[in-house]
Design goal:
two-stranded antiparallel sheet, 340 residues, 13 helices, 72% helix
């Protein structure tokens, strides 16, 4: 039977390699899914360009970070990218509004079918992808500065006396804190402000909202500003936590849509919950449990294999499986959102 030390080592191991990474990744997916579900709930189409809008927002964050660093401006122990987020959000919001004026408003005024807007968003996706690759290239770029770790593994080992060390990166902690702040602010905005209530009314019944005097152009503009802000924050946080590579954001589109649909497309609460469900599913199903089982199992039953359900190469396949199962079993998602 495992003793208390073995149990603690196993718990630290799971916290280090499963819980903390999944919590940070889930926060990034939640912010991305919030942008997708907001556009779907109010503008009524699935925006396939959202992943590359995240990449564009992250690109602007990197450029402003470099500009600040070149002028000797940093954020101390925190990443300078947090300062760069503000101008990056402004630029990304302007680009999102211009794209809407140039592309989506044309079809919206003609009351085109949602599938037409979806196809248009695919075109926008390729355009944004080309712009990002033209500016940043295709290689990995890291733009994290400041203190790298909030908790260091060696310091934790010395403090606890355990064999396993707990390491929490500063970017992981920042991701969770920023996500809590942004989600709280968004929900307060949607439920407490006049504009937020108007957006909800427009989402529930467009014709009735127009009869009530709600300005649809203003609602559309605010929607794109919020979607751009969420995309920029999510893209920058993902880049800080991992690294920035344009093609990665196209791959993120699948787990982001899976998160939005699992929670209930068009439901902001569902997007947040769905983000964490998808993230924990991906991390837990691709983690090798051999060392964890070694701590808890009797020595004679120590596993020889990796005890891994799926290889990390199948990480995004898990999102696809979750997406298909939800669409087959409960198309409205957990919180009964709109059906695609």
């Amino acid at each position: 039977m495992p003793d208390a030390t073995d149990i603690l080592n196993a718990l630290v191991l799971m916290t280090n390699f499963v819980f903390v990474p999944a919590l940070a990744y889930g926060s990034q997916l939640a912010l991305g899914a919030l942008g997708v579900t907001l556009v779907f709930g109010i503008l009524r189409f699935a925006n396939f360009a959202h992943g590359d809008l995240m990449a564009f927002g992250a690109t602007m964050t990197i450029l402003f970070t470099w500009l600040l660093q070149a002028n000797g401006i940093t954020f101390g122990v925190l990443p300078t990218a947090l300062l760069a987020l503000v101008p990056a959000i402004v630029v990304t919001a302007i680009v999102a509004i211009l794209i809407d004026k140039a592309v989506f408003s044309f079809y919206r005024k003609r009351r085109a079918a949602p599938v037409v807007l979806v196809i248009a968003s695919v075109g926008v996706m390729f355009m944004l992808s080309a712009v990002v690759r033209f500016i940043m290239g295709t290689e990995d770029r890291r733009f994290t500065d400041g203190e790298r770790f909030l908790v260091r593994a060696l310091d934790f080992k010395k403090w606890s006396g355990l064999d396993e060390g707990l390491a929490i990166q500063t970017t992981q902690a920042i991701t969770v804190v920023v996500t809590i702040a942004v989600v709280t602010a968004l929900f307060l905005f949607l439920n407490r402000t006049r504009t937020g209530k108007a957006m909800r009314a427009y989402s529930d019944n467009e014709d009735l909202a127009l009869l009530s005097g709600i300005n649809p152009d203003r609602i559309v503009m605010v929607t794109w500003i919020i979607a751009a802000a969420l995309a920029t924050i999510a893209g920058a946080l993902y880049g800080l936590d991992k690294s920035f590579k344009p093609f990665t954001y196209l791959q993120l589109l699948l787990p982001i849509f899976a998160a939005a649909i699992v929670g209930g497309i068009g439901q902001p609460v569902g997007a947040v919950v769905g983000g964490y469900i998808v993230a924990f599913s991906e991390v837990m199903l691709t983690y090798a449990y051999k060392k964890f089982a070694t701590y808890l199992a009797p020595e004679q039953y120590a596993p020889e294999g990796l005890l891994q359900f799926l290889s990390t190469d199948y990480k995004f396949a898990i999102s696809f499986i979750i997406l298909v199962l939800v669409l087959l079993i409960r198309p409205t998602g957990i919180f009964r959102g709109k059906v695609l």
